[in-house]
Design a protein that fits this description.
- It is built from twelve helices and 13 strands.
- By secondary structure, it is of the alpha/beta class.
- The strands form three sheets. The chain has a six-stranded mixed sheet, sandwiched between helices. It has a four-stranded antiparallel sheet with strand order 11-12-10-13.
- A hairpin with a 2-residue loop joins strand 8 and strand 9.
- Helix 5 packs across helix 6 and helix 9 packs across helix 12.
- The two termini are 31 Å apart.
- The structure holds adenosine-5'-triphosphate and magnesium ion.
Amino acid sequence: MPGGPCIFSKGCPGRFGSVEAMITREPPLRSGEGPVGKQALRGGAPAIALRSASKRFGAVEAVREISLTIAPGEVVAFLGPNGAGKTSTIDMVLGLSEPTSGKVEVYGMAPRQAVGKGIVSAILQTGGLLKDLTVAETVAYISNLFTWTRPAQEVMDRAGIAGIANRLVGKCSGGEQQRLRFAMALLPDPELLILDEPTQGLDVEGRRNFWTAIRHDADLGRTIVFATHYLEEADAYADRVVLVRKGEIVADGTAAEVKALAAGRTVRATLADPDETAIGALPGVSSVERRGDSVIIHCAQSDRVARYLLNETPARDLEITSLGLEEAFLALTGDGPARSGSEPAAEGATPWSG
Ligand SMILES: Nc1ncnc2c1ncn2[C@@H]1O[C@H](COP(=O)(O)OP(=O)(O)OP(=O)(O)O)[C@@H](O)[C@H]1O
Ligand SMILES: [Mg+2]
């Protein structure tokens, strides 16, 4: 960490706490604020570029040749089970560790440079807060470590903690403490915000309040990357889901695409006398089942099947469903062999990688 004290970290100087990644005494690099404006920042360089990045800890291959590009403004969920390599990847993006091989860039820069300029900040999986300070004192303290920040009141408003500004941190709930970390991460007005399992241990309401604040912020155009085990969070809050398993990306697309990749879709329609042979011959159809006056078709390419049914048969009451993200997640991250890039993808889906 360039020039920044490591005050809130349990694991200093290894894995930094919630705010260390953004503590810097260099001026932040923001639109109209720093030597390079937003246009230059967004003038082509991706927010994050991983090129065949690997991270090895002795015999453990935590990250295996991951290649990934995240564009400015994307909200991306990094979804995977325990030990998949999410934190190891995030640590490389934040410059907290170096890839064993391959390359990692943030807005076209080395990660440490981007962090040092306030372009990226993070809420990490580990890290403490000082319990005897109030919420407002904590924000002010961190603000003083920078040469420039957004106003403390503004970041507390954005994080939804202005109403508890005078509460001692030690008295705040887990969800409130996470929103305090979020407020601190907003101080340098980063282009890119990285959250490593930010709602772990929070109850449903705590999670909802946290994500309301984050999503509102994302709507203003900030790039957000979050790691999570919570499938419903990836589904509900991310524009794009990158599914990782054993250090590799096994799927990358919208939540709908990831679900379709894993499971395909089921098309159900009322059709008294279906031509099973003709339906079975459509591309991507894996089974055709008659149930009373309904036909149930399992397929990879539901649009094609729907078009056939509606245009060429008297089918009505068409329903298209896909498996839940949880089922897709299990199918993709289970212990079976990883699926390869040569397998057919669902319509419109990003092909498998990794
Ligand atoms: N410093 C380290 N030394 C040795 N092994 C490590 C180290 N950091 C991570 N690992 C190993 O690398 C693998 C990936 O760990 P990582 O923390 O990146 O997973 P994760 O996806 O973040 O998991 P979780 O969801 O539990 O946070 C694991 O097998 C872990 O034990
Ligand atoms: Mg982790």
